[in-house]
Each structure stands twice: as C-alpha cells, then as structure tokens.
User: Fold these one by one.
Assistant:
Number 1:
Amino acid sequence: QVQLVESGGGLVQPGGSLRLSCAASGSAFNFYVMGWYRQAPGKQRELVATITSGASTNYADSVKGRFTISRDNAKNTVYLQMNSLKPEDTAVYYCNTHPLLPPRRDYWGQGTQVTVSS
C-alpha cells in the first residue's frame, strides 16, 4: 500500500519562501513519477511540478522560475522549494505519485495548506 506523507506547509508573507516535503513508502519508487498538485478554494486541482527518478522535471507556467522540485531517491522523498510566493499560490498542496509506465494509477497525500498573506 503506497503512502505519502507531506509536511512543510504554513502561513508566509508575499515574497517569502516555504519548502514542502513528501515521504513515500510502500513500494519501489524507482520507476514512479513524483510531483505536487494544488487546489485553491473553488478551483480545480492543478499540476504544479513533477519529477522522474532520472530528475526530468516539468513545471506549470505559473511557477516556473520561482519553484524548484527535487527528489532524493534513496529516501523516497520529493521536495518543493517555493520562493517569491504570491497570494495566488495559496492552496492545499498535494503530493502525488504514479508509475512512469501505463497503466496509470495515482496515489495522493493528505494535503498541506499553504497560505500566502500579509
């Protein structure tokens, strides 16, 4: 059973930084994509960033240049360094993992709240 445990959310002022972490357990993640999605109130969940075990990354246009996703394969942990945070980054951030090859099956963490406000 795959489990994802997130940490690192909180309240930060505009322009500030936060680092999210997500520890995965229950499988071999060498061939899994890991990533972060977010959902703001009244909006659909959207992709923030993903990373493969080979460190190939993908970012939403809205976070390029501000957020950095990284991964420690030995620890089965993915990180999201968020800099220059804006109020519009406020959302619940969810960790996600799924196999690199089909069939796709998504696993989700419980979510962590990020609030950017003065």
Number 2:
Amino acid sequence: QVQLVESGGGLVQAGGSLRLSCVATGSIFSINTLGWYRQAPGKQRELVAVFPNIGSPNYSDSVKGRFTISRDNAKTVYLQMNSLKPEDTAVYYCYANWGRWNDNSWGQGTQVTVSS
C-alpha cells in the first residue's frame, strides 16, 4: 500500500506562485509513477505533471513553462506553480501508481484558488 498526503494549497492572486508538497508512505519503493492531477468544479480530473517510471517528467500543455515538478527522494514530490491563472483553480491531488499490479493511490487533495 502507498499513502499520500499533500500540503501547500491556498488562495493566491493571478500571477502569483504556490508550492505543493506530497509525501508518500508505505511501499514507496514499489512506486512506478508519482505526480499531480487536478479537478476543477464541474470538470473531470486531469493530469498536471508526473514522473514516469523511466524518463523525464510529463506535463499538461496548459501548465508547461509555468509549473515545475520535482522530487528530492523516493517519497517526496513537489509542484512549483508560477504565473498562476484563475483557470488553475482546482483541487490538486497527489497520485501514485505502484506495485506489479499497477495499483493507484490518491491523496486527499488540496485546494488551490487563484483570484483575478
């Protein structure tokens, strides 16, 4: 099992910055993919940025050049969000795919609100 806990959301004006953090616990060495999704009101959950098992991070086109995902060890991942826009307002979820059977875990979510 992998458990995820996010922190760092909040209210910010357009053009501002926020940094989200996610700490994974449990079977962290079985993690294949680790990253961030978001869900805005009335919309489907969408990928923001993830570290795949192999290779460079993947970003949504809507955040490329503004958001940066980073990882400082096997269990902690960050999302630095710059030049925030009102359309970035959403609940942001930490996500992990893990184990040989590709199980998925989600954090509880953290609200990011960008005012215009």
Number 3:
Amino acid sequence: QVQLVESGGGSVQAGGSLRLSCVASGSIVNFAAMGWYRQAPGKSRELVAAISRGGYISFEDTVKGRFTISRDTAKNTVYLQMNSLKPEDTAVYYCKGSNSPTGADSWGQGTQVTVSS
C-alpha cells in the first residue's frame, strides 16, 4: 500500500500562509484522486480540496479563493497552499489518496495547523 507523509504544518497568525506537502511512496496518478482533509477538535473530518487524476480540482466553500491544490507527479507530491488563514482553519490536515488500482484508499498521519487571532 502506498504510504503518504504530510509536512508543512505549524502555527501562524491570522492572515498568514502555509504550504502543506504530501509525499507518496508510489505514483500519485495511480489514485483516482488526491485530497486534503481536515479535522478540528470535536468536529468530523471534512474534505478541503481535491484533484482528480485528470486534473479536475474542487474546493470546500469556505476555502475557495484562499487555498490552492497542486501536484508534482514527478515528485509524487501534492501541495496545499493556504493563504489568508483564519482561526477557523485550525485543524489537523490529512492527505488522502482515493481509489488505488486495488480499490484501497491511503491516508497520511496528519499535520497540525494552528491559526491564532
């Protein structure tokens, strides 16, 4: 199974930026889609942004215009650029590879993002 490792989280003030990276141990194009999810304390995990194998991109409404998802297939890496961060963006951010050729999904271990007001 492909391993996913996130990095780039940290603590920033409101209005700041962070770039998260998700490095896969195998080819990310083997997944039907790569996505970034987040889970805040006491809340369910939610999809933040996703990019399909074919390059279709989608965002959760509250991050549109602030977050960008991109990928480097040569490096098997997916990025989440987060700008104009708000305290409500505070969460653990997870990378997910969906629907590999075996049908399995892969999750990273998560990276903490904390935004202070």
Number 4:
Amino acid sequence: QVQLVESGGGLVQAGGSLRLSCAVSGSIFRLNHMGWYRQAPGKQRELVAQITNAGSTNYADSVKGRFTISRDNAKNTMYLQMNSLKPEDTAVYYCNVNSLFRGDDWGKGTLVTVSS
C-alpha cells in the first residue's frame, strides 16, 4: 500500500514563501512521475508541477519562475518550494504519484492560504 502525506501548508502574506513536503511510504513499482496539484474553492483540480522518474520537470504557466519541484530519493520525499506567493495561489495542494500498475495515488492535501 502506498501512502502520501503532505505537510508545510499554512497562512502566508502575498510575496512570501512556503515549502511543501510529500512523504511517500510503501512500494512503488515502475514510477512514471510525481507531482503537485491544487484545487481552489469552486475550481477544478489543476496540475502545478511535475517531475518524471528521469528527473525532468514541468510547471503550470501560472507558477513558472516562482515554484520549484524537487525530490529526495533517499528520504522518499518530494518538495514544492513556493516563492513570491500570490492570493490566487490559495488552494488545497495535493501530492500525486503515478506508477505503472497502480495508476494515480493521492495524498489528502494541505491548505495554502495567501493573504493580500
């Protein structure tokens, strides 16, 4: 069984920074990619950033240059460094892992609130 646990969310003023963490436990066979998604009130869940098994990254246009996704394989942890936060970044942020046989696994989410 795979478990994903997010942490690091909270309340921050516009222009501030937060770092989200996603601790991954369990066996993942044939990892395809890992990523962060977010869902704001009344909106659909959207991809924020993704990192492939090979280490390639891609970002939503709205966060390019401000957010950085990374992972520490030794710690089985993925991170999202968020800088220059804006009120429109307010959302619940979800950790996602996609693997060959399991498909998508999700964390329960962590709330990020950016005040203006």
